[in-house]
Fold:
Amino acid sequence: MDFKFTEEQKLVQQTAREFAEKEIEPIATEFDESQTFPWDTVNKLSKMGFMGIIVPEKYGGAGLDYISYVLAVKEISRFCGSHGITVASHNSLCSGHILLAGSEHLKEKYLPDLASGKKLGAWGLTEAGAGSDAAGTQTTAVLEGDEWVLNGSKIFITQGSVGEVAIIIAVTDKKNKRRGHSAFVVDKNSPGYSIGTKENKLGLRASDTAEIVMEDVRIPKENLLGKLGHGFIDTLRVLDGGRISIAALALGLSQGAVEESIKYAKEREQFGKPIGKFQAIGFMIADMAMEQKAAELLTFNAAYLKDKKQPVTQVSAMAKVFAAEVGMRNCTKAIQVHGGYGYTKDYPVERYFRDIKLCEIGEGTSEIQRLVISRSLGL
Amino acid sequence: MKIVVLIKQVPDTNEVKIDPKTGTLIREGVPSIINPDDRHALEAALQLKEKYGGSVVVMTMGPPQAKFALQEARSLGVDECILLSDRAFAGADTWATCYALALGIKKIGDYDIIICGRQAIDGDTAQVGPQIAEQLGLPQVTYVKDLDYNPEEGTIVVSRAMEDGYERIKAKLPALITVIGELNQPRYPTLKGIVAACRHTEYPVWTAKDVGADLKKTGLDGSPTNVKRSFAPQPKGGGLMFEGGARDQVDQLMEKLRKDNVIRER
Structure:
């Protein structure tokens, strides 16, 4: 086992970190407070190629491996979870689904704009009545001549209002339980397509989360993404990769918690010495670092398996749950290390704490992940 | 236009620690970066290339791991990278370093301008740029914070930063300049640039033999100076504050200076 990163991976990590520290960190708190989408920095990330990180070069992307992808999302998220989830969901869910299931026509039509960040992408699976129970989807797609007609609404969609392109999962055969859903690529400017509520969230507040409403939205027949009736199967495969990127998001926030705690424990003095010198705090941070390392290795293992095109469902589910739960513990402890100051907005740890909670919920709750893992064990 | 940029891979001194026993830098485990002033040099070169066309050749002298610094430079969009590396170069002071670098630049040949960072954060001498200019017989301007190139005349006009202002200096190319941070905002690598740097680029290594170096003039042997000791300075004391009106304070100050033998009456 070679645990070394390649020079390419190191450069990606270094570049993401430097950009995030210099350009994103100074504005993160302000955009979190105002819940404004950080177009300026997102556009800069696009220019650097981060919106096409896993898209092959032939479609205008950087064509990097999953380890580089995890490193990039992690380093960006270290300073701002909102930027991290924007990059992750745009790449893994929207571009990822088109890459996985799209016809050559759809790939050529949509991937270059998504990879360059000219258009941001959303992925619409969740509905008011269909969260973990994705089979409860009510959105319908009916073929009328040369067009599919979509009706329904999706909620909690990342890039829901700023995205120009959305993948929509809809029912195409009510009677077919296993092959009754299909995926479609929908342009935002399609008549009948509108944005509903923009969510007011606990965390990741600069990330755009909104409702999409479709009333007789007509899209070309060619915009069926993947085979008819394969929407669900493809969704599961898309989520295998998406899970790894959410694990990376969690790793980044968790790393922020660890680094800020170490820094604070060295500076803050009580009872005549830096608080890090007391075992209560030192041991707390030691545990944080230990769990962080374990979560990193598990996540990189998942990325490695994905790169080698080996079965990854179990490990990616494990990575997502573990990284999210380690992140929750670390971000909570980070506030504790900071004491009263950690409870104020003057320090970033309260934002990491609010941001990390999503990782236990989005792209498959920890409960669903445990279902995936237990099934993979034959239970 | 052919632009040569010299860079140095240095330890990230934000992260560096001093060994309390020896007083020297602990380099182990410290990440290596491109010297900050050199990133401004690279940016200046890339901007010239974008505006006037041509190519940017980057050279660094260092051990094999300095290749990573060249990969980073390549990922920014420079055209060619050369690693000047040989055991014979090890232990060199700035004089012997510049002897080797100048030979390397002569081998590159046909350049219009050489751009260096003002100084490296590990050595902090600021000697390399000027010494290379001398070795090559080129006009030099240091502490450049503003740069304009006139392609018809083949000249540059720069602002040279001084403590209390700046000078405007015109130089005929080929020339060497050293640049400071005020000059520009260094760009970030792009992912495509990183891929090109790591998958599609060669990094030739030039040895002492390749550049025709006289081994007596390189490395420790070729160094007229050597570092005797480096240490962290003792923290300064709080200093002495004088109280009272201006006249009073001056009297107290004069008394102290006399007492400490800093000044003497004739």
User: Anything to note?
Assistant: The mean pLDDT of chain A is 97. The beta strands of chain A are 121-124, 140-144, 147-158, 165-171, 181-187, 193-198, 209-220, 224-225, 269-270, 273-274.
